[in-house]
Amino acid sequence: MQDLLYFSQQLINGLTIGSTYALIAIGYTMVYGIIGMINFAHGEIYMIGAYTALIAITGLTALGLAWLPLILIVALLCAMIVSSSMGWAVERVAYRPVRGRHRLIPLISAIGMSIFLQNYVHLAQGSRNIGFPALIDGGFNFGSGDGFQMSLSYMQITIFITTLICMTALSLFISRSRTGRACRAVSQDLGMANLLGIDTNRIISATFVIGAALAAVAGLLLGMYYGSVDPLFGFIAGLKAFTAAVLGGIGSIPGAMLGGLILGVAESMTSGYLSGEYKDVISFSLLILILLFKPTGLLGKPEVEKI
């Protein structure tokens, strides 16, 4: 029974982190699915979302606002607005001018934008860790008092519910809205979509905005979960989310979700049964192993070149 509780605890921890990886990974996979490029500034946009949420929470509490749901909603909206604006600006500044050129040029442009945003936050907020207020505490405990107790915190439940809502809303948007159908058309054939009257520039900008908004949600959730943020907060999480997108199949939204969950569970199980020092080794080894047997990722589809 103790072993089962311990395994369940690691599974819950892994699904918690994996859910946020999936939210960030969607930004990578949507941009790649539309224009075939990797947005390496996406991790920094996620970090800016976390900082924006922290500033909003600090300001609201300083004004004497004490109702938790209103604080979280306002902080989330502020983070999504700022991150979405940043995503739109990155597309206009770093991608649109070099779109259609050799793929190496947009890649260098995105890396330059990533370094710029990282150093901008470093200068504006300092290099030290800034504590994130623990607004949601408490939870449920399972197990006997003299043995191992499995805990399910309210923060973890919040992450699960928020991620589920975001994933469901995105799926409905992509499948049923006019803009979502246009996104699918552009991802299949950008040139033909342009000829059919779809404003491809607007659709590409919308893709960056949607990915940035989801990254802001993950920034708020992970900021509260870990309890601190710093200028490198986005680099590591962005790298893990990109790994999750490749693992699930870059360009596939369900693949990004699946890859994020697998990566989170793999890290948690490694930390729980081996050591936290090996979690990155196991995660990237798993990525290499899967790509050896399925180069397009778990749910990715091979590209067909028309001659």
Automatic annotation (TrEMBL):
The protein, known as: Inner-membrane translocator
Pfam family, one: BPD_transp_2
Localisation: Cell inner membrane
Main localization (coarse): membrane
UniProt organism field: Marinobacter manganoxydans MnI7-9
TM spans (from-to): 20-38, 45-64, 70-90, 102-121, 154-174, 203-226
InterPro entries assigned: ABC_transp_permease, BCAA_transport_permease
One term under GO cellular component: plasma membrane
Keywords assigned by UniProt, alphabetized: Amino-acid transport, Cell inner membrane, Cell membrane, Membrane, Transmembrane, Transmembrane helix, Transport
Gene Ontology process terms (BP): D-alanine transmembrane transport; L-alanine transport; L-isoleucine import across plasma membrane
